[in-house]
Automatic annotation (TrEMBL):
Domain Aldehyde oxidase/xanthine dehydrogenase a/b hammerhead residue range list: 42-149
Protein name, per record: Xanthine dehydrogenase family protein molybdopterin-binding subunit
Ranges of Low complexity composition bias in the record: 1-16
Region (Disordered): 1-35
Pfam families xref list: Ald_Xan_dh_C, MoCoBD_1, MoCoBD_2
SMART domains: Ald_Xan_dh_C
SUPFAM superfamilies for this protein: CO dehydrogenase molybdoprotein N-domain-like, Molybdenum cofactor-binding domain
Length: 802
């Protein structure tokens, strides 16, 4: 009988049942391994900096050596005359009237024109046949600067005679800021903080400083632009948001978006630093000018100037509490330095303001958050996005209040902890689990690590266990232990009315006698493990073991940015949604072919499992191979989460966020109080993740975020000279990040309290642990030393007073 005869494939006699062994493996809830993991740890993974094209040129960017100056003249003649140089471009060579770009406000010049506004701003481009030739040629470009007064802080930015960083502003924020050098301002007023302060038995105030942190991704900015025969360009690049890049690149090139074809190349970390453009437009301009492929790879020095950083901040807080430990009110003012260009500063301000209260019940608040324009390096997105700076300050305040009241710092926090139903200061209810008190309980009851473990080892003691580590400066004298706690709240997804959606294309077909699913999105895989989760979702929804993830590009609809802890929620939601619709199409085919063979086709709830169509009771109705035969089901669909709304510009009220996430930390440190050296012994964390789609990846994200918070607590800071606004430490020699020797044990306690509004009940995971790890470490150091310590990072001189 022919193979395609339905009788041969329809169940006959007693229906069969799917066995445990034939169920689809590798679905959600399992710790499936990353498809790129082995390649990365063996050094075989191809990053964007590894790309190569025959006959390609190398691009180089010449950057300003001063922070604020008029450009009187640019002479490129010597550079052009250099053998091996194919092109030198300045502002005057840009092909269209669109000269600027930006995520929200298009205030960033492709190449500086008339003036430079920060140290390291791009001024000219060179393409040559060798990277060193391009660098030497760029060094021959002569630029005449006339330096201008610097704007470096709030006082200089808002002085009556202040120079304007951007003259003639026309963006939509200018109408509600008190000075043109204030980029954006967001107040939040709820209740009456002044009246509530009269009920307080204790009031504490604090001024806090948060340093400028770098994302410090290990893979530098890089990409390859290849001119196309149709006059367009192919761009292979490491980025966080392909379609946002496309929207900014195409107008500058004077090309329709369909002629700028972008493909994601291997990304060596991001953390917000690749959300803005870096070399994308520059490589495309050089490729289109020369007619040759052009590769640009920043070295580490260039990378420090090639992307935005975390906003440094000055924060003033006031809290009150009754004698029995209940918070009465909060007032705060948060000043973020956005640097020379807007980047994501408006959204960072919104986050800082709306999350400034922390995960606590407070009905009477008076909040102001703002971002400055200055001549300091531009700042924008970084993991935690405004909530990190606020958490550092409000958690220090909680410790101060607890000390004033003579209360245990954890019990004080638990007494005031929000829960499901609590109103945020914006008036938005927290409509999913908020287990703040439980997270704190879990980190507190965890057994403490043994104290001064090196004492018991005697002469065999490992100096790496001591403050100072391999520098061998500490031998136990003056070493004191400290323990500190902190908890934080972070939003998930884009907020304030942004149309936050994603797109997924899913195809199911039979290949080589097996059902195969292909998932195609534009999601940027930057190390978070999205490609693993998308395959898990497809296996779960479609019951197929063989899932292929296509490379991300702009030939499919936007997936939004890989930021804001949103990709598993939003693009994962799009993959789930599209898979569900593919499944229905497959079942329609099955009903059409086999509906007459078994009544369950019409009456039962059907699912796909183990490559078969089965009922909820486990009866097998057909193999997917027989259902599909030569047909393919191919759908591309968009998916959106619940809408949000903008915060009121006067009161700050509004349902601005789609979801909240929570994490708590306990830090254990040992401090050499004589030398000012700190050893973090343990950073325990408890976090509610809603549903762990891949438990191993979830733990990795939590530990990674915790480590970045540790870095800004004790070592990470970009130092900007206040007299020149120049970066003083643009290298990993002078900008320190935690290594394996600095990173302590990080035990993770995962809660799974589902958010019913989210796919599978999940919560975004990656950012929340970055918030509370920093103040927990600071609290532990304060506990050990008795010092106030109101700035990050803590340096030895802050502990010794030298």
């Amino acid at each position: 009988m022919p193979q395609n005869t339905p009788v041969a494939t329809a169940p006959a006699g007693t229906p069969t049942s799917i066995s445990q062994g034939s169920r689809t493996k590798g679905g959600i809830g399992e710790s499936t391994l990353r498809p790129d993991g082995t390649l990365k740890v063996t050094g075989e993974f191809a990053y964007s900096s590894d790309m190569w094209h025959e006959d390609m040129l190398w691009g180089h960017t010449l950057r300003s050596t001063v922070a604020h100056a008029e450009i009187k003249s640019i002479d490129v003649s010597e550079a052009l005359a250099t053998p091996g140089v194919y092109a030198v471009l300045t502002y005057d060579d840009l092909p269209t009237e669109v000269k600027n770009y930006g995520l929200e406000i298009q205030d960033t010049p492709v190449l500086a024109h008339g003036k430079v506004r920060h140290h390291g701003e791009p001024v000219a481009l060179v393409a040559a046949d060798h990277p060193e030739t391009a660098r030497r040629a760029a060094a021959k470009i002569k630029i005449e600067y006339v330096e201008l007064p610097l704007i470096t802080d709030e006082a200089s930015a808002t002085a009556p005679d202040a120079v304007l960083v951007h003259e003639g502003r026309a963006d939509h924020h200018i109408g509600h800021v008190p000075h043109p050098n204030i980029l954006h301002r967001q107040p939040i007023v709820r209740g009456n903080a002044d009246e509530a302060a009269e009920r307080a038995d204790v009031i504490v105030k604090g001024d806090y400083t948060f340093g400028m942190q770098d994302q410090a991704f290990l893979g530098p900015e890089s990409g390859l632009a290849v001119p196309s025969e149709d006059g367009g360009v192919e761009l292979y690049v490491a980025t966080q948001w392909l379609h946002s890049d496309l929207r900014q690149i195409a107008p500058v090139l004077g090309l329709p978006e369909e002629k700028v074809r972008m493909t994601l190349s291997g990304v060596g970390g991001a953390f917000g630093g690749r959300e803005d453009l870096s070399m994308q437009i520059h490589a495309c301009l050089l490729a289109l000018r020369t007619g040759k492929p052009v590769k640009i790879v920043y070295n580490r020095f260039e990378s420090f100037f090639g992307h935005v950083h975390r906003h440094p901040a000055k924060l003033h807080y006031e809290h009150g509490a009754t004698r029995d430990g209940k918070l009465t009110h909060m007032k705060c003012r948060i000043v973020l330095d956005g640097g020379a260009y807007a980047s994501a500063s408006p959204a960072v301000v919104g986050n800082a303001a709306s999350l400034s209260v922390g995960p606590y019940v407070l009905d009477d608040v008076d909040i102001e958050a703002l971002a400055l324009y200055s001549n300091n390096p531009p700042c924008g997105a970084m993991r935690g996005f405004g909530a990190v700076q606020a958490c550092f300050a409000y958690e220090a305040q909680m410790d101060k209040l607890a000390a004033e009241l003579g209360m245990d710092p954890v019990e004080f926090r638990q007494l005031n902890a929000m829960e499901q139903g609590t109103l945020m200061p914006t008036g938005q209810p927290v409509d999913s689990p908020a287990p703040v008190a439980e997270l704190l309980r879990r980190v507190k009851v965890r057994p403490l690590p043994p104290e001064q473990q090196w004492l018991a080892a005697g002469e065999e003691a490992d100096v790496r266990a001591l403050p100072g580590g391999l520098s061998n400066t500490t031998h136990g004298e003056g070493v004191v232990r400290g323990v500190g706690y902190a908890v934080g709240i972070k939003n998930v997804g884009f907020s304030e009315g942004f149309d936050d959606y994603s797109t997924a294309r899913v195809r199911m077909e039979v290949v080589g006698g097996e059902p195969v699913v292909t998932v195609h999105t534009a999601m940027a895989e930057v190390g978070q493990g999205g490609v693993t989760v998308h395959a898990q979702i497809a296996r779960t929804e479609l019951g197929v073991a063989q899932v292929t993830i296509r490379p991300a590009d702009t030939q499919v609809g936007s997936a939004g940015s890989t930021s804001a802890s949103r990709q598993t929620y939003v693009t994962g939601g799009a993959v789930k949604h599209t898979c569900e619709n593919v499944r229905e199409k497959v079942l329609e085919i099955g009903r059409r072919k086999f509906g007459s063979y078994h009544p369950a086709w019409a009456t039962a709830e059907l699912r796909l499992e183990g490559g078969k169509v089965v009922t909820d009771g486990g009866e097998v109705l057909a193999d997917l191979v027989d259902v599909l035969e030569s047909e393919a089901v191919d759908l591309e669909l968009e998916w959106r989460h619940r809408p949000t709304e903008a915060f009121d510009l006067v009161t700050g009220q509004g349902n601005g966020h789609v979801q909240y996430s929570f994490a708590a930390h306990r830090a254990v440190v040992e401090v050499d109080t004589e030398l000012g050296l700190v050893k973090v012994i343990e950073l325990a964390v408890a976090q509610d993740v809603g549903k762990a789609l891949n438990p191993l990846s979830v733990v990795g994200q939590i530990q990674g975020g915790t480590t970045q918070g540790l870095g800004v607590a004790v070592m990470e800071e970009i130092i900007v000279d206040p007299k020149t606004a120049k970066v003083r430490n643009p290298s990993f020699t002078d900008y320190l990040i935690p290594t394996i020797l600095d990173t302590p044990t990080i035990p993770v306690d995962v809660l799974e309290l589902a958010d019913d509004h989210a796919p599978y009940g999940l919560r975004g995971v990656g950012e929340a642990p970055t918030l509370s790890s920093t103040p927990a470490v600071l609290a532990a150091i304060r506990n050990a030393t008795g010092l106030e310590l109101n700035r990050t990072p803590v340096r030895p001189e802050h502990l010794t007073g030298t």
